[in-house]
Every structure is written in structure tokens, then in C-alpha cells.
Amino acid sequence: MAEPLRHPSEPPPRVSLDIDLDAPGRRHGYLTVPWSRDDSAWGSVLVPLTVVVGTAGPGPTLLFTGGNHGDEYEGPIALMKLAASLDPAQVAGRVIVVPAMNLPAVLAGSRVSPVDGVNMNRAFPGDRRGGVSAMICAFVTEDLVARADAVVDIHAGGKTLDFVPSAVVHDLPDPEQNRRTRAALKAFGAPLGLVLTELDSAGMLDTTVEQAGKVFVSTELGGKGLATAETVAVADRGVANMLRHFGVVEGAPDIPEPSRLMHTPDAACFVQSRHAGLFEPLVDLGVLVREGQVIARIHPVEESGGRPAEYRAARDGLFYCRHARGLIRRGDCLAVLAVDLDDA
């Protein structure tokens, strides 16, 4: 099993974990992150964590994380169930589960942490001398990612976006790492499997894991600030499929229908709002659109009789993601189009 990334000359972290990550069995504990503040001078944030070290034989280490953003709920729901149910006798290897990684944001129902205003998925690999979010990121990087062979980070659209339920990976320069990642994408079994070109990948957990040469799978499971029976079912099945795919538990992945493989090959896939006002979508998620087709209007809400701004698709594609709120601002993501991927 891999060891933490900490260099012997570095000072000890301010964060502590109260359970053994290596001993056989299932343990539930807390990551204690110091947070001194006006209402709690010696206070801490207690991030729940479960580790299951199997007794069914040797195997890989899988790290599952949810609640990276606090207004995305499928991950915490699916991973709380996993942490409560996974039997060490059925596990070959080790499973580490962090259902609410950004616990302050999950408790507040917000994308960023209310403690320090940090977007956790732009704060990796973290800083052990930093604030609460930076310390959590540093622990995840140095003590959890370092031990893991593969990482599954479950996301959704939060309160401001809505997606066709999908598993998400990136196109990687290393052929073998890319092959293993694509295989995991297909095994997750989401309705759509997306190879995403990120607009901004700096500070992401994705980037930290990928740069370490490991398999990373994320998701975008709906959105609008809520979970549905459909999206939770996709998360539950995907988590179980990852355990089977990597040989941590016995059995083949349950894939009712192969994922539709798509990608976002260029900037024309991303539609950004240049206006503020009332957002009127003209197509629904999952619909194929044609280049030049009007996909949305933005109405000037502060005047009567004004003409709405029309937004047209810059290329053919599937209406994969949309702005989820009635009001939209300049600079907001209005829509994302996805294009079928030839993965033969």
C-alpha cells in the first residue's frame, strides 16, 4: 500500500484523524481540523470518515469523496449508505469514504465553505499551514490520495446548474492511465460518459489525482440544488460498479445500458451569458440541437417591451448542461453542448 506524501523534514500537520487507516475491519471516525473563532476559541471542524480494510484478501485502495461542494447531494447520500453497509469480509483491499469532505459547505447548503469562502475544488493540493479548507485539502492529498489507487469524487450541478446525469473523466496524455480511466468511466454505468475539457482545472482534486498518475472519475448528476430518485440511483449503482470494476468486491458491474460516450472538444461547446435578466430555455436537457438553433433567450427584466437577447448553438450537439435558475447574470454558464465520441 502507498504511503503518505509527507516529507520527513516537514512539520507535522495541524489536522488529525482518530482512526487507523491500515488495520483490518470497518472504522468510523473524524478528521479534526482546528477552527478557532469568536464563538469557539479552541473549536474544530469534525469531518466524518470511514475506512474499510477488507479481510477477503489483498486488493487496491479506493477513495470515495462527496460534498466537495456543499449544494450537491447525491455524493453524500450514496456514500453515507456505503459507509454504513460495506462489510470487511466482502472487501479485498481497502475503501476510504469521505461523504461530506467540505462539511461546513454541506451543512450550509452552499457551493463554497462559509468558514473561509473557499471553493474546495479550486484549493488542491492544499496547504497544511492554511485555513480550514486548505488544511482539509492537504490531508486528503497527502494522507488519502497518496494511499489510493483510484479516486471517485461525486458531483452534481448544485443550485446553479443542471446536467444530464453523467460520469466524467478527462483526456490524459499518458496512454495507459488514459486507458484505465476510460475503462472506469464505462464501468461506472451512468447514462452518459463525458470526456470533459475543463475551462479551469487549476486547484482541482481531479488534477491532483491525475498528476499523481492515478485513475480519477467524477460525476455530474443532475443539479438545481436537489437530489432525485433517479440521480441517487445512478450514484448508488456507480459506486457499487466501481467496487466491482476494481476487484474490491466480487461480481461484474451492473450496467443496464452502456453509457453514451461524449466529449466537449472545443470552446463552441460552452455558452456563456453576455446579458443579465430572465432566463428562458428553449430546449430541454438531453435534446440534440443544430448549429445556429436558438437555444435560449434572456429577457431584460428591468424594462417593459425590451427585446430579449437570443443565444444560438455554435455547433451541433446534445444539450448537456443548462443554467438552473430563473435569473441569469453576465458571465454565468448558460449551457454546455456535448458531442458524440468515437471511442472505438
Automatic annotation (TrEMBL):
One of its GO terms (molecular function) is hydrolase activity, acting on carbon-nitrogen (but not peptide) bonds, in linear amides. The keyword Zinc applies. InterPro entries: AstE_AspA_cat, DoeB, N-alpha-Ac-DABA-like, N-alpha-Ac-DABA_deacetylase. Its cofactor is Zn(2+). Residues 58-245 form the Succinylglutamate desuccinylase/Aspartoacylase catalytic domain. Keywords: Hydrolase, Metal-binding, Zinc. The keyword Plastid does not apply. PANTHER family: BLL3975 PROTEIN. NCBIfam families: ectoine_eutE. This is N-alpha-acetyl-L-2,4-diaminobutyrate deacetylase. It comes from Caenispirillum bisanense. The lineage of its organism: Bacteria, Pseudomonadati, Pseudomonadota, Alphaproteobacteria, Rhodospirillales.
